[in-house]
Design a protein that fits this description.
Strand content: 5-15%
Low-confidence stretches: 116-120
Shape: globular
Mean pLDDT: 88
Number of helices: 7
Helix content: 25-40%
Oligomer: single chain
Structural class: alpha/beta
CATH superfamily of the largest domain: Type I PLP-dependent aspartate aminotransferase-like (Major domain)
Largest sheet: 5 strands, parallel
């Protein structure tokens, strides 16, 4: 009996990194030589390029996605005594962003609608999209609800049309968490281009 164990690395980006290694090394050297570790030319160029690619007017680099959510909500005037709806499966960083803005996170369930999901041999194993359930979100609306943070997940976007209808019906802002759906598209919209603002993690 063969008892040799094979270790499978949790993350191995070497194959992806190798073709870009010289380009990345040159970019890092350039930043080191200029010494602009915060803000600077490269960030300004990235902000403009990513905003253009996302179909929005502006992009602002922050320390992390949590900062983007917190600062974005605050910039929209959302804070103490306000409620922000988000899905229960949002990463803790999204929740912390809402809390750091001073608002109260209101968690709602995920959508169990499996339309559009690839069908498998045994229907009982069909997985839901894991995107926010807008019907559950509607039931969570109160007079204190100021925003909804839909989580675009696994490259999938929450339906922009349904989000816009929801925001209009309940007079709330849409602040997208697009950290897992960079440049995803649906219904003629690009992730991050649906609401008042969006947060990414790169």
């Amino acid at each position: 009996m063969n008892t040799t164990l094979t270790t499978i690395p949790l993350v191995d980006l070497s194959e992806q990194h190798q073709p870009l290694q010289n380009q990345i090394d040159a970019a890092v050297r350039d930043v080191l030589q200029r010494g602009d570790f915060i803000l600077g030319k490269d960030l300004a160029e990235f902000e403009a390029a990513f905003a253009l690619k996302s179909g929005v007017s502006y992009g602002i680099g922050t320390g992390c996605g949590t900062d983007a959510i917190s600062l974005g909500l605050q910039a929209c005037g959302i804070g103490a005594n306000d409620e922000v709806i988000l899905p229960t499966n949002a990463f803790i960083a999204t929740l912390i962003g809402v809390i750091r803005a001073g608002a109260k996170p209101i968690l709602v369930d995920c959508d169990l609608d499996v339309r559009g999901v690839v069908r498998v041999a045994r229907p009982e194993y069909i997985e839901a999209t894991a995107l926010i359930d807008l019907e559950a979100a509607a039931k969570a609306i109160t007079t204190k609800t100021k925003a909804i943070v839909p989580l675009h997940l696994y490259g999938q976007m929450v339906s922009p049309r349904q989000l816009l209808d929801f925001a209009s019906a309940y007079n709330v802002l849409i602040f997208e968490d697009a950290a897992q759906a960079h440049l995803a598209q649906r219904e003629g919209y690009t992730a991050g281009g649906v609401g008042i603002a969006a947060a990414y993690s790169l």
